[in-house]
Amino acid sequence: MLYSIVSMPNTVIYDDHILVKGSYDIILHDKMMREGLVPVDGNVTDTSVFFKTCPFVRSGSGCTLPPRYRSYVCNFFLCREILENPEYKDKLEPYVRERNNYVRFLEWENNQLFTAMNEEGLSFRKNLDGAIEFLKNLEINQYDFPLLEPVVIPDNHSMGA
Ligand code: SF4
């Protein structure tokens, strides 16, 4: 899977991460903004998101990237409308706290791994195969997720599958 990600168009390999660029239709964005066709309200601070496409999304299938390869932004995204809804705010607070803890853990763990690679003179950019081989043999710490109370948010659609 990792190699299929790396072989995608518009991929840039950095020392410590791999960036796969998506697309942004700036011409359509500008045109629709001029014509007043883009919804602008308090919930949307950056309207360019409506015109950007992630390279991993496929029409009719959704995300094609397995969760373990996605960024934590994708895996733990909570939209502002839900977070600011007084009915769910308190119930979601433990999730937000746990997400923040997990992100801190990830940053710490990634830093450790990058330092270990550096000490071997390795980086993804310099030697991708060597770096992958090196990382494969390292023990990775796992985050101990607590069991949280489920939060059920009805979508108000009366028709189900
Ligand atoms: S979940 Fe993330 S990786 Fe998957 S399609 Fe959406 S933005 Fe892209």
Poorly predicted parts: none
The chain-level mean pLDDT equals: 90
Compute the separation of the termini in Å: 31 Å
Strand order of the largest sheet: 1-2
Shape: globular
What structural category characterises the helix and strand content?
mainly alpha
State the domain count: 2
Order of helices and strands: HEEEHEEEHHHH
Count up the helices: 6
Gyration radius over CA: 20 Å
Strand content: 5-15%
What kind of sheet is the major sheet?
Answer: 2 strands, antiparallel
Number of strands: 6
| Helix content bin | 25-40%
Oligomer: single chain
List cofactors, ions and other ligands: iron/sulfur cluster
Q: Which terms would index this structure?
A:
39% helix, mainly alpha, binds iron/sulfur cluster, 6 helices, 9% strand
Structural account:
The strands form three sheets. A two-stranded antiparallel sheet has the order 1-2. A two-stranded antiparallel sheet has the order 3-4. With 161 residues, it is mainly alpha-helical. The two termini are 31 Å apart. The protein has two domains: 65 residues, no CATH class; 78 residues. The site of iron/sulfur cluster has 7 residues, from loops. Iron/sulfur cluster (SF4) binds next to loops.
How would you concisely characterize the structure shown here?
The chain is mainly alpha-helical and 161 residues long. Helix content is 39%, strand content 9%.
